[in-house]
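Subject: sequence -> structure tokens, single chain

Hey, anyone have a minute? Need the predicted structure for the following. Not urgent.
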Amino acid sequence: MIRIAGSTFAFGDMTLDASCDILRELGFDLADVGASGWSTFTAYVPQQVVENPEDVDNEAARIRRVVDDKGIGVSELFICDFGQAINHPDPEERKRSRGLFEKFAAIGGKVGFESIMMLPGNVHEDLGQSYEQAFDMSVQEYTWMRDIAGEHDLQLNFEPCIMSIAVEPAQAIRLAEAVPGVGLTIDYAHQVQIGLGADDIEAMHPYAKHFHVKQSAQGEFEVKPDADNGAIDFGRLLGKLKTDGYDGVVTVEFVAAPDVIEAGWDMAVETAKMKRVVEDALAT
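Reply:
Had a minute. Here:
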């Protein structure tokens, strides 16, 4: 069964309590939750629901209490990274990331998340890292993270994202196959903005464990659901998921990026529009 979720991190630097209120007002009862406030992408996804990772039990209890009080189930814990890419050449940076991941995974497991998402990293050319070295380091770190996530009954996913070693479908598939058990959180926007289409992106579907949806266009990460230049055919996307028997979550995931806020977007309004697009596509 395909379930529709919202994202608590769609509304900028907001508390979990306040963002859950918005999601409930929009009719969501399931959410991806933002734990990306310490990541390299804080300008886009600043929400950080984990306040003190050293206190695993109390953090998990606090988060669980909020979502339960709001009537929101939890799907994916959206982390990205911890301020440096997971494949950073410096072993001390990787050690720090591992330490935080262990704590966040423990919190996520206790809260009851289904999956946890970490970005695949990039090539650190300024530090002398080659693509193959970056790829191998990501494989090493994902292998370790997969095992830690599994200890807490969490599915480890990565998003084939722009500026990463896995933005191209072939790269993402290669990485997924190198770490059996790791899944993809697919967001067509990352590939559409570099000029790829559904025929290219659908090659990743067999590896998908989670989907994000927003409208996008070549050269633009996100455009409004009713924009004239929107390039994603959600009827095709959702139709394929139904035909393929996808049993998982599709999360409406706009982000409060500086450019769209400057353009006057109301993130709740656009999230509501996108939710209707998904619902209509699933109903046909």
